[in-house]
Amino acid sequence: MSATAKFPQNTLTFSHGVHPEEFKELSNQCKIQRMPFVDEYTLPLGQHIGAPSKALVVKGQKVKRGEKIADAAGFVSVALHSPVDGVVSEIGIFDTPKGDVLPGIKIKTDPYSTQRTVETPVDFESLDAKGFISAVQNAGIVGLGGAAFPSHVKFSIPEGKNCKYIMLNGCECEPFLTADHRTMVEYPEAIIDGILILNRFLKAEKAYIAIEANKPDAIEILSNLVAKNSFPIEVVPLKVKYPQGAEKMMISAILGKEVPSGKLPLDLEVLVCNVGTIKAISEYFRKGLPLIERIVTVTGTALKKPANVLVPIGTPMRAVIELCGGITDDAARILLGGPMMGAVQKSLDVPVVKGTSGILVLGQNEVRDFEEYSCIRCGRCVDACPLFLNPTMMGLLAKKGLWDEMLEYNVMDCFECASCSYVCPSGIPLVQSFRVAKGILREKAMREKLKST
Amino acid sequence: MVGDFLIPLLILVGLGLLFGIVLSIAYKRFKVDEDPRIDKVEEMLPHANCGACGVPGCRAFAEQVVNEGTNPAKCTVSSPEGIVDIANYLGVEASEEEKWVARLLCAGGISEAHNLASYKGGMSTCRGEAVVVGGSKDCSWGCLGLGDCETVCDFDAITMNDNGLPVVDAEKCAACNDCIEVCPKELFVLMPISRKLIVQCRSLIEGDLAESKCSVACTACARCVVDSAPGVIEIKDNLAVINYELNDLTSPVAVKRCPTDAIVWLEGDNQFEQKKKLNLPIGRVEEVIDKDKYYQ
How many helices (H) and strands (E) does chain B have? Predict the structure, then answer.
């Protein structure tokens, strides 16, 4: 019985949320194409959450494609690899997509560099759980959904906890983005293979692949494939709703359980992993290919040729946009990531990093400068918030600068999905003020910690 | 009929009397003798409750002054006369505490720093702009110019000038730390007012690249290092850093050859004031120079 029949469409979902226009048709039929090498690659050392990697190379050193150029500094940190054959031309500080300037490595491409790599499978059969975790760390694999959290940290299950379900996140609820969709359509075997490799060490009972119902081709391909497996993998179509791809929302949709505030999915015996990440794991163990490239959706109404591109990490955003025909005169704003949570960019000279899921060029029609009016307490944001927070009250408190009071309204639980800002008829910058509040509260906690020590 | 209101009235009067007696006995028996001077000193303090002295509120500071003999001059808000009054009242010596002020380590206003984008977001505060890829300026360290510090200052010591930079009125500044905590770019520092040589830049980029982002950026050319006494200035991470332990050796000669005016010698007490022309010899001056001599 196929999963689609078992779960009639549009049944499983979470409560609240919004449904923005999708715009997926711009690129969801575009086959993944490979990005040719450019002259120079900039690799920031801090692309992931956690401690920045430690550089292993010196200026002038020759590096090979896939060679490790920076090592993990600590447990919550991963290694970094060169995406090309070339020479380290500079070790310095460079602009990053987050808007700050961080240490990084610049590599000048060898004109004879090829995209072919010698396939050197990693023998995972003989690895124990610890060996597997350090192998994942060494491969530089981070969560490719956007947050770039080191995957091996997720996979190292603490004592006393158990992983019963592996959940693959193929929801891709952000409008415009189709990178995960294309990954599922074009690399379904790698995804299934990745699950099986991962499960050798996690020993889960069952795996789910959650896919929003607007990707019927991916659901069909994966459903056909899982049927041939002995390990129970279930493809679960979910209702098209934002933010369905947030791990807490996905778990509540599939298992009907809520992850408590401040807890992790693992407390519900669930491990959530992006489909791109699982493909990276399979590619590392089968082909020996560390995380040196990722699939990026380059799209937007103001982009000439939307596409899904396999981009080497460190490629300047400008080169990727040029590959896709460049921007039209209508272009108004460029974002890294989707339109809801993506970061707007001020410069095209920042590199594509491990956490870049999309490059989005919005036209004049999609960008509006909201004029802010007073809150009319309509409560639409309360209806939209998937975490059942109270954005109305938190917005009012933020306006007055009452950060400590916002803490009582659990502002720290907010994961900035921007549903509240999306529905607000008064154009109040709710999510922006929550980000500010979270920053200030974190700083305050840090100061207090410093004082007490 | 009369009893209907008389009885409750009597009960209430009786209760009132009873509580009054209990309270007056408690007041007598459990009285805590407090130094009456604390009230007096608290009255003399400015009631700003700013915390610049390091204790929460003026009352706590008054207790410290009376009980622990803390120097009343630690209160940075009081006028010197007010401090002397308190010292005289307590019969202690009011030792001189040097005045500290907040200094901005950025001189890249609207006319100097290059903008890459225009910020039109909802929140018109620096904090709000900083969460959107670090603000619209090309320089990642630069002042965003939306005046969070002006809003937060309790003493009206900070005003935004026409160039989009906050000017600290040294006279009014109480060195209370508020602007330092609020600035998302961490551009304010507290300094004793005697420090006249300041590098008004925090950019860690060097050379032409730094200058292309902001015309007053420190390019790490190290001319100021050469021109000042040994050890006073050094280049650290592409930025000139002044060793203020050698503050006595600083001289305006160091700013003479700065190609971008990133390093300045303050003539008045405030930053960003009209500059007088300096007529100084070029190169290191070994003897301690009479600074006034060189102003035209």
Answer: 9, 8
**pTM, 2 dp:** 0.86
Record: contact A436-B135, CB cut-off 8 A: no
Q: What are the Cα distances from residue B9, in Å, to A356, B1, B3, B18, B155?
A: 77, 13, 9, 14, 52
Chains A–B, number of C-beta pairs less than 8 Å apart: 59
CATH tag, B100-294: 3.30.70.20
CA atoms B44, B45, B48, B49: torsion sign: negative
Distance in Å, alpha carbon of A347 to nearest chain B alpha carbon: 7
Partner-chain residue, chosen from B128, B140, B205, that has the shortest CB–CB distance to A436: B128
From CA B222, how far away is CA B100, in angstroms rounded?
A: 28
- Superfamily grouping for domain B36-90: Electron transport complex subunit B, putative Fe-S cluster (1.10.15.40)
Every domain of chain B and the residues it spans: 36-90, 100-294
What is the dihedral sign for C-alpha A345, A346, A352, A358? positive
pLDDT in tens, A146-177: 788 999 999 998 888 889 999 999 999 999 99
Does the beta carbon of A369 lie under 8 angstroms from any beta carbon of chain B?
yes
Tokens coding A267:
């407390």
| Structural domains of chain A, ranges and CATH numbers in brackets | 3-26+155-287 (3.40.50.11540), 380-452 (no CATH)
On whether ipTM exceeds 0.90, the answer is no
Q: What is the pLDDT of residues A199-243, one digit of tens each?
A: 988 889 999 999 999 999 999 999 999 888 888 999 999 999 999
CB A145 within 8 A of CB A277: yes
Query: Could you read off the pLDDT of B200-235 as tens digits, one per residue?
Result: 999 998 888 899 999 999 999 999 998 888 889 999
